[in-house]
Amino acid sequence: MKTRRRPYAEQRPQELGGGVCSVPVPIPGNPLGYTLVYAVESPAGPVLVDAGWNHPDAWQALSGGLAALGLDVSAVRGVVVTHFHPDHAGLAGRVKEASGAWIAMHEHDAALVRLMAEYAAEAHDDFQADMLRRAGADPAEAGQAMGARPDPPAPPDRELRDGDLVDLPGRKLRAVHTPGHTPGHICLHLEDADRLFTGDHVLPGITPHIGIYPYDRDDVDPLGDFLESLDRVSGLGPLDALPAHEWIFPDVAARAAEIRHHHEEKLERLRALLSRRPRPLTIWEVAAMMTWNRPWEELSPMLRGMAAGEAAAHLRALEARGQVRRLAAVDPVRFHALDS
Ligand SMILES: [Zn+2]
Ligand SMILES: [Zn+2]
Questions:
Q1: In angstroms, how far is the first alpha carbon of the chain from the final one?
Q2: Residues 309-319: tens digit of each pLDDT
Q3: CB 3.0 to 4.6 Å from 212: which of 119, 141, 302, 312, for a disulfide?
Q4: 115 C-alpha to center of ligand 1: Å?
Q5: What does the DSSP assignment read for 23-73?
Q6: Angle between helices 222-234 and 252-276 in degrees, nearest 10
Q7: Ligand 2 mean position to 52 CA, how many Å?
Q8: Which residue segments constitute the domains of the chain, with CATH numbers given?
Q9: Global pTM?
Q10: β-strands 173-177, 158-160: how paired?
Q11: How many Å apart are CA 168 and CA 175, to the nearest integer?
């Protein structure tokens, strides 16, 4: 696939045929550039898949882009968000204000949104510093702020479960639960047009962030969930993929298989790395040894924090497969390879 990501300035609202349009909505200050918001038309008004980042420029782009396609934002019937992240759910509340639209998301992400709203009221600096310390970060690093958090998104009016049809008269848009990137991530299968809105689950050129927070949790396995979710999507067949970032691409099953392969290789490299070490490693040590798109020394505190989250998710997946064991009685927690 030779298509390359083009900057936001080169993106245009597009009529995609079959009653589906896309509107690029900028994410100010983010290298991803933009979110692709989709409108699925119906006799009862369009439903949006995702909404974009909550920012005045983004709102301009969304409302103006819909207008350029002959759609009025005040006629929007509903917003179904693929997951709670701010580049997807951020503007949903604003669309609701303008149109009276309902907001729908998977029940697991809805629970997280409620938690975020409770949490936003409290200070969390100690929580973050403690999480970093328990992962083995230097005390100096554990004291650094990892960046401001955006406001929590508007709470959903409707909660979806796997297999539910979205309220879109005359069309068939079905939620496919694809946990991993978030616990309640969904893809949306437009069954009347053989298309899959993939959110951040399957993107054509990059792979989504899969992390564990706090890093030392052992009651979840987001990477294991993500790999299963890739298989689920592959099982739907070679559908056209309409992702939330980058560009539209054919054959979601082929790309899902490629991403699965990427993570299997990464897991194997990590297992080999641990088995060569004479002593167990902290999550932070593992993160510093893994390969990222820039050298570890050049990563900002926020990116190091995300890298540690990814390292934790890979360690946890290896642990769930019985290839790695954690020493939980020590502080910070350490991991070592089991002989296979
Ligand atoms: Zn996301
Ligand atoms: Zn995203």
A1: 37
A2: 999 999 999 99
A3: 312
A4: 17
A5: EEEE-TT-TT-EEEEEEE--TT--EEE----SSHHHHHHHHHHHHHTT--G
A6: 150
A7: 9
A8: 8-122+150-272 (3.60.15.10)
A9: 0.94
A10: unpaired
A11: 12
